[in-house]
Amino acid sequence: MAQQGRQIQILPDASAVGELLLNGAANFAKKHKIISGSYVFGLLVILLAGSGTKLTFDRQREYDRIMNTIDLRAEYDASTRYGHAYDAWYASKGWFSCDSLCQRNKRRMDSTKQDLDAIRAEGYNRMSDAKSVAGLFSEYGVGEVKDSFWSHFASGKQFAKRQSMWDAMFIGLRTMGRDESMMEYVLRVLMKVLLNFSIGLVMALAFFAFGLWSIVKSYQPDPFTALIFFISAICAGFAFVTSYLLIMYGAAAGGLYGVAKFAESNARIQGQQQNHHRVRNRPQYY
Fold first, then answer.
1. How many CA atoms lie within 13 A of 159 on its CB side?
2. What's the rounded Cα separation, in Å, for the pair 285 and 278?
3. Pick the residue with more confidence: 264 or 49?
4. Which of 48, 75, 138, 143 sits at a 20 to 30 Å CA gap from 21?
5. How far apart are CA 37 and CA 60, in angstroms?
6. Which among 127, 148, 128 has a CA at the least distance from the CA of 220?
7. Within its chain, how far is the Cα of 70 from the centroid?
8. Distance CA 24, CA 249 (A)
9. How far is CA 31 from the centre of its chain?
């Protein structure tokens, strides 16, 4: 009976698992100091950065004055002219040819496109001048970077959810064909969900990093300020994504560990009941 109990007791205690994870994390931090240092620095940025510095009255007035010089009506009209010219060119062109009417429409489309690009470039330059008045570490700069990160983060999660939904459906179809158990299906879906969220959020972080530099440049900072802000924002995004994935993996591992311990406890109880029945049913000799 004691031997059977030892055979069923195959899972370590929660304290042993926690100690193993802590040791693994400590060893990883020692071997990859740059990654672990970036993670810690990113956490500090998230906790201490806040929402940026608030503009003074004079800076706010100058910022608003420059922003009001952007002619949004002119950009709208130029965009409308370009849309009409593009529609006319697209309707007149053939599959593999472009006659005289098509060529005339194409020249008109190219001309309107140049006008639109020039108006947009002028508006971007004026917006950049206004941003330079506010400053990169202002509430406008920090807010714009945060909005960019949350937009990419939401897109990454949406990709993971959509892909996980399709994976769950196809895995379910294959499971019915192979006559697999419900537990095997849940485990396979869980692994796919974790993989999809890892891919989606890492891609989101990469796209955020690629677009971050254009945001930094638009505020016209000096090179040192730009470099400090860029590194801080990248580390903060890396720390948040890593923490999010670690929580997901930890919750999944904890859930699986709890299910396994519950199954182990049930198996032990069933084994004890079977042994008890065998003892009661054993013939007695007097």
1. 16
2. 16
3. 49
4. 48
5. 37
6. 128
7. 34
8. 15
9. 26
